[in-house]
């Protein structure tokens, strides 16, 4: 009897304890729910960056060029001559007027080299660079603005041409090319090479009615031009004596089937011939100096075989 009473008393005590514990939990829940909810400020999420395709392409080009340099080759060279085989190198800058009679095969009507370059850039198959340093790619919009005739564009209140309102130059109007090349001697093959590096297209001063001077349009890697010209039927050196012997532009360049004038040779002050004080007497003096440099290069090539 006593045992049953004790068991009953124990159950009652457990029930009271559990009931009080439940009431305490309810009170705590009410206090927690009555407390003000403090909302933490949400940080503004920055919009995703729009990737510049020209920057991505430039990074890819730099990686390819770095790989060529690591292997010991000039990344701009069409002829792969290892640096250890180059016994002599001289960098030369030339200007080429496509209106001259000896250059007319590169400037035949409808087959102008300048027209072929513009067509390939606008088709997206040729990369155009802003400067001869090849550090910045031009977009199609920027290139299109470069070849616009400023005289045909609408002008604003200040008389400045409005971009995108002009008519682009025809290929026949862009007859000035300037290119940079290396004259190098390959001791492995025992011969000289004229290794063209870049070609730059210019707007002549007579068509640049706003500035009145030659204006640089864009610079192109010569090795890129060689690739695209192979697939262009109108990119030919026109042989007026025998049309069966028309040549690819790259072959005509290798055979030196053009006339040009030296405007600069590698020098410590990085000066053009026309900027050197000893040649500033007259334009005729500059032309004579250019021809002298040309003869000196030819003489150096000939002296290699003079015993």
Give an overview in words.
There is one protein chain. The protein has two domains: 75-266, no CATH class; 274-307, no CATH class. The strands form two sheets. Strands 4-3-2-1-7 form a five-stranded antiparallel beta sheet. With 307 residues, it is of the alpha+beta class. It is built from seven helices and seven strands; from the N terminus they run ααβααβββαββαβα. It starts with a helix and ends with a helix. It is globular and about 65 Å long.
Q: Uncertain regions: pLDDT < 50 for 5+ in a row?
A: none
Number of domains: 2
Helix-and-strand structural type: alpha+beta
Net shape: globular
* SSE string: HHEHHEEEHEEHEH
Spatial gap, N to C terminus: 139 Å
Number of helices: 7
- Percentage of residues in DSSP E strands: 15-25%
The share of residues in helices is: 25-40%
Mean pLDDT: 82
Rounded radius of gyration (Å): 37 Å
Number of strands: 7
Biggest pleated sheet: 5 strands, antiparallel
Order of strands, main sheet, comes to 4-3-2-1-7
